[in-house]
């Protein structure tokens, strides 16, 4: 066996609520999946879903702090339902999509909004606006075998004790089965993939010292402090 040039990095994992660790492979994110958020960002609710990615090592777990990222003065919060894939599949039928889900968590899609705005205007990729270090705080994963497959329930984000975002999973333009079926036409979903499913309205800026606490009814919570 060939020697590695350097020691491989430790695998990224998310704690499972009832014990064990979920090894993260890829992180896919759905853009513009709640109508009010689509409108607040000035876009058309009739557009089909689209996706971007974050690197696996952008994940922050255990309530750890998130460093304020460089090259931005407009860091935004986006509270989201996270789907954890437990079974491989490509070109998945919508009726079979939930068979591929291991469980669910609450996550934050942190965004350098000023960089995203520049990228949008120039027609460039969003990578540096979305996929930066520590940009995906995620709570513990609840197995679907324990909580089912949530398709409704309040999704909220509080910053320093003040509510910023409130919506309901039922307001998603594309349901979890629809999203997984659509995405699996383009890539093979593998056990270990995480899909962040979009945010409701109310996104806004945060700064150093702010404490973010997100919750989804029936799923769980996520917490981080910007440092």
TrEMBL record:
<dbReference type="GO" id="GO:0018773">
    <property type="term" value="F:acetylpyruvate hydrolase activity"/>
</dbReference>
<dbReference type="InterPro" id="IPR036663">
    <property type="entry name" value="Fumarylacetoacetase_C_sf"/>
</dbReference>
<dbReference type="Pfam" id="PF01557">
    <property type="entry name" value="FAA_hydrolase"/>
</dbReference>
<keyword id="KW-0670">Pyruvate</keyword>
<keyword id="KW-0378">Hydrolase</keyword>
<protein>
    <submittedName>
        <fullName>Fumarylpyruvate hydrolase</fullName>
        <ecNumber>3.7.1.20</ecNumber>
    </submittedName>
</protein>
<keyword id="KW-0479">Metal-binding</keyword>
<dbReference type="GO" id="GO:0046872">
    <property type="term" value="F:metal ion binding"/>
</dbReference>
<feature type="domain" description="Fumarylacetoacetase-like C-terminal">
    <location>
        <begin position="27"/>
        <end position="227"/>
    </location>
</feature>
<dbReference type="GO" id="GO:0034545">
    <property type="term" value="F:fumarylpyruvate hydrolase activity"/>
</dbReference>
<dbReference type="InterPro" id="IPR011234">
    <property type="entry name" value="Fumarylacetoacetase-like_C"/>
</dbReference>
